[in-house]
Amino acid sequence: MQNRGFLSVLLLVLCTCAIQEGRAQHNCELYIKGVVLTDGGEPLADAVIHTAQGRSASSDRRGHFMLERVCQGEVRLTCTHLGYRSREYSLQVVRDTVLRVVLEADAIHLRDVEIIGKQAETLSASIHRLSRSEAQQVRGKTLGESLLDISGMSTIGMGNSIVKPVINGLHSNRILIMNNGIRQEGQQWGAEHAPEIDPFVADRLEVIKGAQGVRYGADALGGVIVASPHAINTEGGLGGRIDVVGQSNGRGGTLHGMLEGNTKRFPKLGWRVQATGKKLGNYKSADYYVGNTGVEELNYSAALQYHDRSNKFDIFYSRFGTQLGIFVGAHIGTVEDIEARIQHGRPFEEYDFSYSISAPRQKVTHDLLKASWKYQIDPKTNLEVLYGFQRNHRKEYDVRRVESDDLPMADMVLTTQSLDAILKRGNTSFGLQSLVQVNNNTPGTGTTPIIPNFDNYTLGAFGIHQFHINRLHAELGARYDFKYLDVAGYRYRRDEVNEDGSIEQYLLTDTRRFHNASGTFGVLYHFSPQLSWKSNIGLAWRAPSANELYSDGVHHGSATYEVGDRQLRSEKGLKWVNTLLFETERANITLDVHAQMIYDYIYAQPNPDTIRQTIRGTFPIFSYRQHDAFFYGADLKWTYRMGAGFDYGGTASVLRARNISLGAYLPYIPADRLQHGVSWHFGEDGEEQDYIRFAHRFVARQTRYEANSDYAAPPPAYHLLDFYVSRQFNWNAEKRLVALLSVENLLNKAYKDYMDRFRYFTHQIGRNINLKVSYKF
């Protein structure tokens, strides 16, 4: 009996222990939380922490993470982040655990953190962005002027107030501009239609060279410009920035203010408001004022941002409004007058300084609304849905003979709606993108619109996958787009002239369908921590725009008469860009070598043998043509730290372009250019914004053009000198003030640029003294 009792007690104890052990083994309600830091002690966001059992999490912007529903026992945990060495842990988990993870930077992959960023979304393309000091130097300038410090960038436009960016010789509808994640859609088809973007809204400006048709869609033959703001700071309370820019040439300036913060009741809800005002009078060349070239601008925007663990909501609204004058000497009455003015090369009239803006002039407003939702399905998968609404209202005024000059000659309203959905899982992305666009000419102008009314419907789908094998990274992508264009508008029967000399009108209706595939393949290889190579080959396409197909009339904004061609086909471009990146403690060099074949390239050819005389005046004729073209060239950017605070840096670009169908040069291709300078950084703490800089700009004469193919030969080469001095004052980590004094065109050089449509009649801007003050709090 005693043995039986002892056995019973022993069995009961063993069963109890087994039950307790089983309960312990099935206790899966524990958590592991902690923080991920760099080896310098800074929080590291977007690090991925996962266990062998399949649990995973990612760190937030403060480096915090949490793994939930972890079972007791041994847990093998791995923490990874691009640009840092992976870290593995083996933990005996018996209760809730707090962990501190420190990751060491991996020098050979650290640059990939920038290459594979949320903005660029590509690893093999050539990506360039402005530094802090460069961004401060260009505050108050237009978007096109702001990007001139990037190699391979130039501008095309009219004078000093209408400027648009050019990437490797391509511009307008061959460049996509992403404005806060939305594809900017305006009347960008004209050389005098500058992008309706306030650069102050974009804290980050970057240029992606190469054919980027897969990720961004049709029209990205030349590249992409990404303008994006920083995320709203919801942790520092109320903050903001004030920018004041004054300039001597034009006797005006720019005032910008931004305020952001959150609310105590909803700490995850951030807000931001900002506004920009600009006013300039007639600008002055080296020795005379250019009449009616003033600018007035008022822009404002507001944003709301809500983030929680899995969701991110953003709402953004902006309004860009500008009124700017067109040089009155470009609108001429007779054939003899225009020929005499081109021969003279400068205005016959003398103009005084004035802030008034009269006809000819432009008045443009652009409204943009963005709503986005990003859902984090798991640490490796997220879904993003993005809706955009844009309304671009352009009015162009000319000097009228009978009616009031307050009645516009052109009144166009372009409304665009877009809806994108992108799914990302690990290294793979899939996306659907759609766009509906309606262009209406407002009646009552008393003129025939240069382009007809049209409806445009576009649908695209793409996929991109990235591979990472030690030092080699690669990406492969494909895309398909379909576009439907429906037009209706009145046109003249120029081949049927009545006895009284009048020309009858007829109603033009037409539909066109375009579709094409795009593709990309690229690699990134690290030879060493100092030397990397990127190579990207991309296939992109672009359907002809409505103005290229159907324009037939005076383009009042540019003082030209444009003639379209209804038989134009889509452009197809194949671009190959190779980039070498070399970086040491003393030197930083980036070299881009590019070549692009564009089949059925569309361009506006000036016809010097014909000048169209109308009741509105006499205008040069530009006719749209189409041939195969080949572009190739190289862009170089370098910085060398000489010691004792001195740096020497600059950019250089060469570009060649040929019409291979005719064996001739193409018109309006940027000439070779070089800009370089010496800087002395005198701040005690090596502050980037404390410096004195002398810079030199050189643009060669464009000798690669067809004789007698333009109204005037390309102007001579020119040299310009610039001077900058900057100082930063820090009160604490949150408050700082940067003051910059600059003198551009220091020697007041009279010059013309081949890419300026006003070069027929006038010179570029003369000496310009700028004072720029930025206060961040």
UniProtKB/TrEMBL annotation:
Residue intervals of the TonB-dependent receptor-like beta-barrel domain: 303-746
The TonB-dependent receptor plug domain, residue ranges: 122-224
Short name of one Pfam family: TonB_dep_Rec_b-barrel
GO cellular component, one term: cell outer membrane
Topology of the protein relative to the lipid bilayer: Multi-pass membrane protein
Keyword Ribosomal protein on entry: no
Keywords for the protein's UniProt record, in alphabetical order: Cell outer membrane, Membrane, Receptor, TonB box, Transmembrane, Transmembrane beta strand, Transport
InterPro entries: Beta-barrel_TonB (IPR000531), Beta-barrel_TonB_sf (IPR036942), CarboxyPept-like_regulatory (IPR008969), Plug_dom (IPR012910), Plug_dom_sf (IPR037066), TonB-dep_rcpt-like (IPR039426)
Location (main, coarse): membrane
Molecular-function GO terms, alphabetical: siderophore uptake transmembrane transporter activity
Localization per Swiss-Prot or TrEMBL: Cell outer membrane
One GO term (biological process): siderophore transmembrane transport
Family: Belongs to the TonB-dependent receptor family.
Protein name: Iron complex outermembrane receptor protein
Organism of this sequence: Sphingobacterium allocomposti
